[in-house]
Write a structure and sequence with these properties.
Layout (H helix, E strand, L loop, with lengths): L6 E3 L34 H4 L85 E2 L5 E2 L2 E4 L2 H9 L3 E3 L5 E2 L5 E5 L6 E19 L2 E7 L9 E3 L5 E2 H6 L2 E2 L4 E3 L11 E3 L4 E12 L13 E5 L5 E4 L5 H10 L10 H6 L10 H10 L18 H8 L50 H4 L21 H11 L1 H8 L18 H15 L11 H12 L19 H21 L3 H13 L1
Parallel strand pairs: 5-17, 13-14
Antiparallel strand pairs: 1-4, 2-3, 4-7, 6-13, 7-12, 8-9, 8-10, 8-11, 8-15, 15-16, 15-17
Helix pairs in contact: 6-13, 7-9, 9-10, 12-14
The structure holds a DNA duplex (24 and 24 nucleotides).
Length: about 600
Amino acid sequence: MLGAEGKTDLFSSKDSVEERRKSPLSGGKQPAAGSRYPEYGFGPERYYSPPTAPKPTADSNTPCSFIPYSPSGSIYAPSSTARYPTSLHLGSVGFSPSAGPRGHFSPAYQLGQSPGCLYAQYSGSGPALGSVAIRANGTATRAHVDLCNRPLWLKFHRNQTEMIITKQGRRMFPFLSFNIAGLSLTAHYNVYVEVALADPNHWRFQGGKWVTCGKADNSSQGNKVYIHPESPNTGAHWMRQEISFSKLKLTNNKGTNQSISRMIILQSLHKYQPRLHFMEVTENSVEEFNTDPKTQSFIFPETQFIAVTAYQNTDITQLKIDHNPFAKGFRDNYDSMYTTPDNDCLTPSPTNSSRAHQIVPSARYTMQPVLQDQFVNNFTQKRFYNSERAVPQTSSLLSPQTEDGASQRWFVTAMQHGTSGSTSHKLDLTPYEGDYSSSLLPYGIKSLSMQSSHGLSYYPDSPFSDMANVWGPRAAYQRKMTPSLPWSPRPSPTAGFPEDSDKVNPQFEDEVTGGGLTSSWAETQPSSLSLVKNDSYTPVCKRRRLSLNGPSTEDSPVDIKCEDIVSVASGSYCKEAPSSKGMASFYSFYTSY
DNA sequence: ACGCTCGCATCAGGTGGGAAACGG
DNA sequence: CCGTTTCCCACCTGATGCGAGCGT
């Protein structure tokens, strides 16, 4: 059930967006380039949803004006608009057996309606939204989106994700990052994220729990949309790499003049649901915002969060500290993290977790399910992508991408029903319980944790910039290209790199098919990783608050192992690199820090 | 001489903690 | 009074510029 959440299919095909807009920082027109990914998709019969969505209201200030199709469920429509019944939720009414229960790449569930509110009774039973966009020519275009860092999102979601909002704007963490497939290669799209109220309540953190406290302030004004700076761009472009919104900032400053392009204005203590939109545009309609372009929208319930000006739940705080590189200075020392009661999954090794995350290659290229973290590591890319872009998707017995899908459970631990009190808003992860023991590495592997280090790129932007160095113009343009005017000529990233299709597609295919990972390397990798840890770890005590929720130990072993798995998987990734030079770099890297 | 790579230093910006300020 | 917001701090990452070293 939960497995379907990682992948969502559009639920709204033809959507009139009130604030249809073009990015001022548009990318350029790009000749149709070979897509790295074929138009993967599933039969329309499985994802069909009403192609004709109701026209949105003209209330541009209302997030819900973007929501043409109510079954999106998780978005709360302020009473003022009253377009969306609060009882809507995502129902799991369809299941794709062909895709298999593979977690990240699990089949999408068809969107359905059923009693209950998604936001009020989040069961996680049918988060994936499916639908089919009907093209003008009558042929259905199927697009589906993967939430790249879904495992990390799930970690946060278990504790009710909180996002800091500040006057100057605070980046989201985890940030939104997607992979999409199924777009028209040549069609142009604007990609943007909208953050809408997820429910009608005002929330308060009380007694270690998030509880509702009155009604939400529906009068919220201000920008709720963040347009991806590379918009507009071709479907080929969007499908080529992760679509990252790492620069998206959240603010509570309604007076900010940056809000339109860079910030989304939210209200503290309100629950929000980010939504991804792909708006197909045509050259002729670039400046015509009154046209009615096709818009495909996606919702990932696990990205729901409560906006706060200060963290309330210390578990969330710890998760942020453990996973956000910019908060590395707040990380506790290794020993305490493994001896204190709260060394649960939320606080895996500051070292291994971060390194593991860093070492994770772009989810785009393979280990997405394994790599539960946000980051794409430029270190990894620098050292491995150049020698073998086809990454080790195939690498490891540790990969969650096992065909049986059990590995997915690695990244999802049991709900802590008693801890946050917001269980009703959490994904029901129980289906993932019980399989840890059979699929996880020995705890001892913890020793393989790697010291988090510096100089690593966490955000997709950087990785790509590094890839630029390694892959040449194809990747280089990703970063070096400056936001250009709409439709400005842009090099075709794939045109000059015919190998892309050869190397990347197979990977993607592997993802889809649940390509297995070789296990041989896993037996050897630990030693090197252990060495790393021993050499690099330096205990540092930092202040740390204790969670009001108390230790959540039930799943800690799982997460710990999970982290380790990532580390090991990363190692496998390294080993996969055919270049001995790359390996040398790898080892020197770890021994030097 | 020129171009390239590498390492270092610097700076901008992101992070959560904690105390003070604010407001109902 | 209490909950929330704001501000400042130390710490960290990442981008950039510069110079040294090396090869052509």
